[in-house]
Amino acid sequence: GECESPKVPITATVYPPVKATISGDATICNTDGAYLAVNIPSGKPNFTIKYKVETDKAGLIEKELPNLADREFSIPVYPTAKTVYTLTYVEDANKCKADLNKSGSATVVVNNKPSFTLNETTLGDLCAGKALTLPAVTVDNGGTDITGQGWYLAGDAITSIDKLSIESHNGKKLTYKATNQCGTEEKTYTTLSVIDCADFTFTYSLS
């Protein structure tokens, strides 16, 4: 006859799949930080995660956070340029790994204060009564709207200098300033030296 081996029950433990997401899109100034939100709704703590940090300047960097007890937590980040954060690895205490195809990503856009080129120069002595032509300045807005820009004489906003005077202009610093929500950039153009050119006129006669 046929032989039949004894049946031995097998106990199998099926763990729930591990799921994880990352989020936290933000637009910040380069002096600020942002927070990434990681959520692991299923799986058994503690968790180990890895995430990649990708920028145009630095390329790709991977970071690891081991032995995490919480299912929801924040990661503070301080990028200096636009950066994309993506989960690359999540494992729970049962050694089960997450399928990260739908885990999302977080993009942090970084804006800067305005920037422009204005070389400090010496204009020499300027004659009182004459106009001073101010150079055109091209401003890079740093990624966000300019809220104010223009020329300043000793801290006071001006639009032009149509008539130089010793009393109003001599010895005063001429600067250009541009502002957006991330800050202000101010550069010195020159310190004015205004003289009375009539002092240098004279007459003579031949005898």
How is the largest sheet built, in terms of strand order? 2-8-7-4-5
- What distance lies between the first and last C-alpha atoms, to the nearest angstrom? 155 Å
Estimated share of beta-strand residues: over 45%
Unreliable residue stretches: none
With helices defined by DSSP (H or I, 4 residues minimum), what is the helix count? 1
Structural class of the secondary structure composition? mainly beta
What is the arithmetic mean of pLDDT? 92
Shape: rod-shaped
Q: What's the alpha carbon Rg, rounded to whole Å?
A: 33 Å
Report the helical percentage.
Answer: under 10%
Keywords:
single chain, 207 residues, mainly beta, five-stranded mixed sheet, four-stranded antiparallel sheet, 1 helix, 2% helix
Give a brief description.
With 207 residues, the chain is mainly beta. The protein contains 1 helix and 16 strands.
Overview of this structure, please?
By secondary structure, the protein is mainly β. Helix content is 2%, strand content 46%. A 5-stranded mixed β-sheet has the order 2-8-7-4-5, with no helix packed on it. Strands 13-12-14-15 form a 4-stranded antiparallel β-sheet, with no helix packed on it. A hairpin with a 2-residue loop joins strand 14 and strand 15.
SSE map:
Layout: E1 19-23, E2 26-29, E3 34-42, E4 47-55, E5 59-68, E6 72-77, E7 83-91, E8 106-111, E9 115-116, E10 125-127, E11 139-140, E12 146-153, E13 156-158, H1 166-169, E14 173-180, E15 183-191, E16 193-195
Parallel strand pairs: 2-8, 10-16
Antiparallel strand pairs: 1-3, 3-6, 4-5, 4-7, 7-8, 9-11, 12-13, 12-14, 14-15
